[in-house]
TrEMBL record:
UniProt xrefs under Pfam families: Fasciclin
Source organism: Aquimarina intermedia
Annotated GO CC locations: extracellular space
Residues passing through the membrane, by range: none
Stretches assigned to the FAS1 domain: 45-189
Keywords: Signal
InterPro entries associated with the record: Adhesion/Biosynth-related, FAS1_dom_sf, FAS1_domain
Residues making up the signal peptide according to the UniProt record: 1-24
Identification of the protein by name: Putative surface protein with fasciclin (FAS1) repeats
Gene3D superfamilies: FAS1 domain
Amino acid sequence: MKRSNILTVVSFSMTILAVTSSFAQDTMMKKEKIVMVGGAAMYPSKNIVENALNSKDHTTLVAAVKAAELVATLQGEGPFTVFAPTNKAFNKLPKGTVETLVMPENKATLHHILTYHVLAGDYKAMDIVKAIKAGNGKAIFTTVNGGKLTAMLKGKKVMLMDEKGGTSWVTIADVHQSNGVIHVINTVLLPNDKM
């Protein structure tokens, strides 16, 4: 076979592989019911940490999770429900707060705050709304750190109230993970006994 024919066959084969790979990825995305967060696809087949690493809106949260040494936990079997504050949510904190929290000497405080954003179990939006309705307009959830979060409905949106009376809205619900679910929120939640 001539060299030019071999090159044509190789080129054609590579094109077929590229098209097949693209088709497989598109099919997987449709099958997995992908949610876009921070400009990245969140795959239900990946765990909480694997997906969060790809969201440009959650770089502060990822850095905080690493500083608090929670990566292994959130990559664990779970299931977990994570209320994930965006970078803008962290920016609402007083200037210098995040920088102070990620210092090694503040690891315990950071760990306490981050685990206040986590529930043991897989609570989809439907489960949270059902609990709110059963509780006559309010549902109280116990977080992994033992604190309490109050969930309420305002119209069709879920609002969370922390132990200090601060509120946060769920802006993207039901981002499914292999080990639970993420709900994106717009304000950092604070437990009563810290900060």
